[in-house]
């Protein structure tokens, strides 16, 4: 069995070795309002263009962003059209062609225009008309924005400016009405075969509907948002920034890693961020009428500061001025009713905060100050508490609205960005502030002692491709940084350095002097780290899925935090492929950190070692990845006929496989990362050929099915995976069955090893789930306690599990002694085990997990309450942790190897590997949570009469304690996180559970 | 009545579900053709003489200020209109007696004037329709008027009120059931109305409507009885579609 598993680990990664260029694609989506969309002929690709001149091509079948390309020149893409492998783009009278194979954009394509599909239906404000037929908007104050008639079906779809969709027949009688979008419907496009319609909205999303059922299929939404305000800390290690969703982030360049935390702060864009004297606290300016002080130690906003006092919805109701939020002045350049706080600053002593914003039903904009001494910014985190919102003090005759504020001493502050090259100073008083003099920013503020680390705004204008719109001055050396279009220029002593690489207008610039970085954020949802001196692009940084950072080097190597991997795809040879396919080659934290140039060689070496360890675990070496290799080829030939949404419980797949050199060996199919044929796949050996065709009837799981198909040749090389999604809606809902397998031993033949509470754990586990019997169709229980817990009995439990169905749940729980033999292999001690030769009658890990391998059920959880149940790095120095007393559930059958002390934290490349890389080895698809690390012990406690691990498991479901997101359910990941924290607390840190196997694609609800 | 109110509220709730509430501002002016009223006797207390005046016509001018709340579905919408109604009603009098201390005929503008202030709550249904690009609505409904101030007086053409202070000490008892008695104490009443709206722009509306009040509920009808009104409304949607706020939907729960 072990041999088989090793083989499967070896083969799955072979697909990374390719001759063609592979480009990582961050799944950002649009960062502006979508204006126009177009399907390709096959109905697989959907192109969409937005206000920022970004064109996003999505592979709708794979559910991934294929590529995002920025068009140069004036903003105004008006049309898109696929022509073979090319996408034609019309922009302000110019025509471009984007080659989907080479990913090159070229100007000078032949002109084109797509035919109107309005079918003669005309939009008349709040009505759609054709002859005597009319459709009136459900809200007569809302205008229609789009109308499109289906080429063959009796269907007309209209969309309005509030995002409502009207599906009508040709007489304009409404058949269905949906509110999927929130802003204007901007385009409607039917696929060529007429089976789908894509609907684009200014809310940056696209919805896909199947026809003629008019069923919602999926929504393509943005996953990465523009960063606006940034501030770098003088210590050179911290960069705070805020995005347009309202999250405030702090990125910390630590000695051995880069970390990032995000806090939900505002209900709108974060316009400005400023560090306070406490480096873990920052002030923020939001577009939601509030400034805030955010505490990254306590992970919460400490206090909000209101800009306009009377802007609540209620008070706006009868305030005609306040309602006209979009009213502008005569020139149309300034918002007259504007609740943006644009700038914020905190005094060096942490006692004052100042914030400035726009007008709102008032003659003047607002600028306010307030004392924040009660926030105790200089105190330990325990002293900092959440405070009530503060209204602040203001001067009625204030006429200023600044885009940057800065305290140069405890009482004096400056405002910049209102007028070109002017900084205005103010003095904080008891009643607010007094206006002082003004100075020239370029001239250096008339001798003011400015923090040399600051970048000060010289001028701010409307963003433009041809004029300077953001100019900042580096107060250290007086260098001027100016932004025109997507480019930053730095003028330094007559020399100009250009920073080119953004694909959107620049939002902000900051210098991290200690690292010699310039950091810029732009409307392409990215931040770029540049070499300050040379203008070389060092790194592009994306914040994906709210807080997960993805760093990408110019040569496409990346480092992705947490499960940010799901926010990546790879573009290869005109296809978009899941990140895991190439992750082994391109996920290189060591190269990313080396490129950043700020980490010591031994740290980079450690990361490299972690990378090598990962390669080794996957059966690869660096050399193997450098070469080129012939891959088997596989295609699902009927992929066009597969509906995204289906009510058929089975899916027919016609699979065609071939290999130029070697015979085909096996076929693998995964549904939500659970192997349909088990870890060994389906053998193709009996076909003895380099070509094979298979017709597979694949049972679907209720809900989302991420299906991956690949084949292997007889030397273990795997094809690229074909991936697609199918959503199964059962015609009749059926309660799933629950299969519980409880294995526990407290009495051993060698009685000196007897334990006290393991059988308690087993019965407690069964009792726990029996309480929820009504949630399941049938609950099947197999328990093996003490004398009945023999190797043969336990392995026979699989017979019943083979009767399960795809949506059923299987949970296996073991409690007893865990042993390690001389090879560091884990064994669970059966009642009759020979503790000196555990392999004879013990159950090794592969056999235990094998209970879950190849069974029809796809919701599988394996809970191991035994010592040494975590994974072990056999290649490195290994030391068993200190023995902690009689309460341990483990026996170690080997002597500590070597004399080195155990390494901890990031000094341990194995742990580092586990932190930095998602474990993408596809095992049985089961989630495995183990009570202890490979070298650690699982404990039991007489007070609770349980093992700590099992006790935490039971506690997790009491009052749904583990339900962190409060959705009423406990998911497997929530359970895992709860157990991790709870066990650590209950054992005073002596026991640390680990996640031995994860399944990112099947985080099922367990309670 | 109670059941009708409940049914109406239920209907409004149903029609307003998932709908956007539109609020706005409304100003209107009306001219009312009032009921004429019975003869009225005015007794000069100083000279112990009584005069009988006859109101041959009655008219009114009203000014409304309101804050409509509008909701509904498609063509069918309901408006809740809290408003303030300032009504000035006049009944010019004619006298048979030549020797009266004031003008004899209506031409002399001797009149009984009423000033009535009535907060009101209107509930209107509107049917919207379109002709080409033009947007219209036909409406009907009722206004519940609650007088908080009502005062009758005798005035001349110079709007000088006759009082003992300016030399005329008199009594003017209102005949029971007459329109004058109603004007003096209008009481809470329901005023039906019909209207026609022209949408000059999406939210700017010109309103024309006709309604009746208790001053049109006397015995002696004028040829045209009721109020003809014209007004303007500026409607504004609740909750602005702020692009930045819309992005909040993408925050993970």
- Structural class label of chain A: mainly beta
Strand content of chain B: over 45%
- Give me the number of helical elements of chain A: 15
Ends distance of chain A: 33 Å
Gyration radius of chain B, rounded? 23 Å
By DSSP, the count of extended strands of chain A is 70
- Unreliable spans of chain B are none
Task: List the chains of the largest interface with their residue counts.
Answer: A-B, 46 and 39 residues
How many helices of chain B? The count is 3
Biggest pleated-sheet summary of chain B:
13 strands, antiparallel
How does the overall form of chain B come out from the CA principal axes?
elongated
Helicity level of chain B: under 10%
Described by strand count, sense and barrel closure, the largest sheet of chain A is: 6 strands, antiparallel
Neighbour order of strands in the largest sheet of chain A: 42-43-44-45-46-47
Order of helices and strands of chain B: HEEEEEEEEEEHEEEH
C-alpha geometry of chain A: globular
Oligomer: heterodimer
Structural features, described:
- The complex is a heterodimer of chains A (1007) and B (253).
- Chain A starts with a helix and ends in a 10-residue tail after the last strand.
- In chain A, the strands form 17 sheets. Chain A has a six-stranded antiparallel beta sheet with strand order 42-43-44-45-46-47, with helices on one face. In chain A, strands 51, 53, 54, 55, 57 and 58 form a six-stranded mixed beta sheet that branches. Chain A has a six-stranded mixed beta sheet with strand order 60-59-61-65-67-70, with helices on one face.
- Chain A contains 15 helices and 70 strands.
- Chain A is mostly beta strands.
- Chain A is 12% helix and 38% strand.
- In chain A, helix 5 (589-596) packs antiparallel against helix 6.
- Chain A is globular and about 90 Å long.
- In chain A, a hairpin with a 3-residue loop joins strand 22 and strand 23 (247-253).
- Mean pLDDT of chain A is 85; it is low at 1-19, 316-328 and 892-907.
- Chain B has one domain.
- With 253 residues, chain B is mainly β.
- In chain B, a hairpin with a 4-residue loop joins strand 2 and strand 3 (49-55).
- Chain B has helices spanning 2-16, 179-184, 243-246, and strands at 22-34, 40-44, 49-55, 58-66, 69-73, 76-95, 111-131, 134-145, 149-155, 170-171, 189-199, 204-211, 226-237.
- In chain B, strands 1, 2, 3, 4, 5, 6, 7, 8, 9, 10, 11, 12 and 13 form a 13-stranded antiparallel beta sheet that branches.
- The mean pLDDT of chain B is 83.
- Classes of the chains: A mainly beta (1007), B mainly beta (253).
- The A-B interface holds A 33, 124-127, 129, 134, 136-143, 161-162, 179, 182-183, 202-204, 221-222, 225, 244-246, 264, 267-269, 287-288, 313, 317-318, 320, 323, 325-326, 545-546, 965, 967 and B 18-20, 22-23, 25, 67, 72-75, 77, 128, 130, 132-133, 135, 202-203, 234-253.
């Amino acid at each position: 069995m072990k041999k088989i598993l090793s083989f499967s680990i070896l083969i799955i990664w072979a697909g990374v070795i390719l001759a063609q260029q592979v480009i990582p694609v961050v799944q950002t989506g649009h960062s502006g309002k979508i204006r126009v969309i177009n399907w390709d002929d096959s109905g697989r690709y959907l192109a969409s263009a937005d206000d920022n001149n970004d064109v996003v091509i999505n592979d709708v079948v794979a559910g991934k962003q294929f590529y995002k390309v920025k068009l140069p020149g004036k903003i105004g893409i008006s049309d898109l059209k696929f022509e073979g492998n090319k996408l034609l783009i019309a922009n302000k009278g110019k025509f471009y062609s984007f080659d989907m194979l080479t990913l090159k954009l070229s100007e000078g394509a032949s002109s084109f225009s797509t035919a109107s599909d309005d079918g003669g239906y005309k939009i008349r404000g709040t009505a759609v008309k054709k002859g005597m037929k009319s459709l009136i908007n459900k809200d007569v104050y809302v205008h229609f924005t789009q109308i499109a008639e289906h080429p063959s079906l009796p269907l007309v779809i209209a969309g309005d400016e509030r995002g409502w969709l009207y599906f009508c027949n040709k007489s304009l009688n409404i058949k269905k009405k949906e509110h999927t979008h929130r802003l204007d419907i901007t385009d409607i496009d039917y696929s060529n075969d007429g089976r789908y319609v894509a609907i684009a909205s200014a809310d940056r999303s696209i919805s896909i509907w199947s026809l003629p059922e008019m069923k919602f299929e999926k929504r393509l939404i943005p996953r990465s948002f523009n960063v606006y305000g940034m501030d770098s800390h003088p210590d050179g290690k911290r960069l705070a920034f805020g995005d347009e969703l309202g999250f405030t982030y702090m990125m910390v360049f630590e000695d051995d890693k880069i970390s990032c935390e995000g806090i939900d702060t505002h209900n709108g864009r974060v316009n400005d961020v400023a560090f306070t004297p406490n480096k873990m606290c920052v002030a923020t300016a939001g577009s939601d009428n509030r400034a805030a002080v955010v505490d990254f130690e306590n992970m919460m906003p400490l206090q909000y500061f209101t800009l306009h006092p009377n802007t609540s919805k209620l008070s706006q109701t009868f305030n005609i001025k306040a309602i006209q939020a979009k009213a502008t002045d005569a020139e149309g350049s300034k918002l007259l009713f504007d609740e943006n706080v644009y700038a914020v600053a905190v005094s060096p002593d942490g006692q004052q905060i100042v914030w400035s914003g726009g007008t709102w039903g008032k003659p003047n904009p607002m600028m306010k100050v307030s004392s924040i001494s009660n926030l105790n910014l200089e105190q330990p985190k325990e002293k900092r508490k959440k405070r009530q919102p503060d209204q602040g003090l203001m001067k009625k005759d204030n006429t200023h609205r600044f885009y940057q504020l800065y305290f140069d001493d405890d009482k004096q502050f400056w405002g910049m960005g209102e007028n070109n090259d002017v900084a205005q100073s103010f003095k904080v008083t008891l009643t607010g502030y007094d206006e002082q003099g003004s100075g020239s920013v370029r001239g250096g503020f008339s001798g003011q002692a400015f923090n040399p680390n600051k970048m000060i705004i010289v001028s701010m204008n409307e963003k433009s491709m041809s004029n300077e719109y953001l100019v900042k001055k580096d107060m250290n050396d007086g260098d001027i940084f100016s932004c025109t279009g997507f480019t930053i220029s730095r003028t330094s002593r007559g020399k100009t350095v250009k920073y080119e690489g953004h694909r959107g207008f620049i939002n902000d610039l900051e210098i991290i002097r200690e690292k010699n970085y310039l950091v810029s954020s732009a409307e392409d949802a990215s931040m770029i780290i540049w070499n300050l001196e040379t203008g070389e692009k060092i790194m592009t940084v994306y914040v994906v899925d709210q807080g997960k950072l993805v760093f990408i080097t110019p040569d496409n190597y990346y480092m992705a935090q947490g499960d940010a991997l799901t926010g990546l795809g790879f573009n290869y040879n005109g296809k978009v492929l899941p990140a895991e396919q190439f992750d082994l080659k391109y996920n290189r934290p060591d190269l990313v950190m080396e490129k950043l140039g700020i980490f010591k060689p031994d740290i980079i070496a450690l990361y490299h070692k972690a990378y090598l360890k990962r390669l080794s675990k996957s059966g690869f070496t660096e050399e193997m990845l450098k070469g080129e290799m012939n891959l088997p080829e596989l295609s699902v030939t009927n992929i066009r006929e597969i509906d995204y949404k289906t009510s058929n419980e089975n899916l027919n797949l016609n699979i065609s496989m071939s290999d130029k050199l070697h015979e085909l060996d096996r076929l693998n199919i995964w549904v939500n990362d659970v192997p349909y044929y088990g870890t060994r796949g389906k053998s193709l050996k009996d076909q003895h050929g380099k070509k094979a065709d298979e017709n597979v009837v694949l049972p679907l799981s209720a809900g989302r099915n991420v299906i991956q198909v690949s084949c292997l040749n007889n030397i273990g090389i795997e094809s690229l995976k074909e991936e697609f999604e199918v959503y199964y809606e059962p015609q009749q809902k059926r309660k799933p069955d629950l299969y519980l397998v409880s294995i526990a031993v407290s009495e051993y033949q060698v009685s000196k090893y007897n334990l006290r509470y393991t059988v308690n754990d087993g019965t407690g586990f069964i009792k726990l789930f029996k309480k929820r019997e009504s949630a399941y169709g049938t609950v099947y229980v197999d328990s093996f306690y003490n004398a009945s817990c023999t190797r043969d009995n336990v392995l026979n439990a699989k017979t019943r599990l083979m009767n399960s169905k795809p949506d059923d749940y299987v949970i296996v729980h073991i409690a007893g002694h865990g042993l390690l033999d001389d090879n560091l292999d884990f064994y669970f001690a059966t009642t009759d085990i020979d503790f000196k030769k555990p392999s004879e009658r013990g159950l090794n890990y592969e056999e235990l997990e094998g209970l879950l391998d190849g069974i029809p059920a796809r919701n599988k959880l394996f809970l191991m309450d035994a010592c040494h149940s975590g994974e072990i790095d056999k290649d490195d120095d290994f030391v068993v942790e200190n023995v902690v007393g009689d309460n341990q559930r483990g026996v170690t059958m080997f002597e500590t190897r070597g004399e080195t002390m155990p390494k901890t934290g990031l000094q341990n490349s194995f742990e580092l590997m586990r932190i930095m890389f998602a474990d993408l080895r596809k095992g049985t698809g089961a989630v495995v949570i183990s009570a202890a690390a490979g070298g650690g012990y699982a404990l039991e406690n007489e007070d609770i009469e349980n093992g700590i691990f099992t006790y935490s498991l039971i506690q997790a479901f009491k009052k749904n304690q583990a339900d962190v997101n409060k959705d009423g359910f406990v998911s497997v990941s929530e359970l895992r996180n709860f157990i991790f924290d709870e066990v650590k607390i209950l054992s005073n840190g002596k026991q640390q559970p680990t996640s031995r196997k994860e399944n990112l694609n099947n985080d099922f609800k367990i309670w | 009545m109670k059941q009708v109110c409940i049914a109406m509220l239920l209907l409004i709730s149903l029609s307003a579900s998932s709908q956007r509430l539109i609020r706005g501002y409304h100003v209107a002016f009306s001219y009312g053709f009032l009921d004429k009223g019975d003869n009225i006797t005015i007794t000069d207390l100083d000279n112990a003489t009584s005069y009988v005046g006859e109101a041959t016509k009655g008219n009114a001018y009203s000014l409304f200020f309101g804050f409509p709340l509008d909701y509904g579905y498609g063509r069918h919408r309901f408006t809740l209109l809290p408003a303030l109604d300032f009504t000035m009603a006049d009944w010019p009098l004619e006298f048979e007696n030549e020797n009266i201390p004031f003008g004899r005929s209506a031409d002399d503008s001797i009149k009984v004037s009423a000033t009535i202030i009535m907060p009101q709550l209107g509930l209107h249904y509107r049917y919207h329709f379109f002709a080409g690009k033009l947007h219209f609505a036909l409406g009907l409904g009722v206004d519940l008027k609650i007088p908080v101030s009502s005062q009758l007086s005798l005035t001349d053409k110079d709007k000088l009120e006759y009082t003992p202070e300016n030399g005329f000490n008199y009594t003017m008892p209102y005949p029971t059931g007459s329109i004058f008695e109603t004007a003096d104490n209008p009481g809470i009443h329901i005023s039906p109305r019909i209207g026609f709206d022209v949408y000059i722009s999406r939210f700017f509306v010109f309103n024309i409507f006709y309604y009746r009040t208790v001053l049109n509920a006397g015995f002696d009808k004028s040829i045209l009885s009721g109020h003809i009104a014209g007004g303007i409304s500026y409607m504004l949607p609740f909750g602005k579609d702020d692009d930045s706020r819309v992005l909040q939907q993408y925050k993970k729960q």
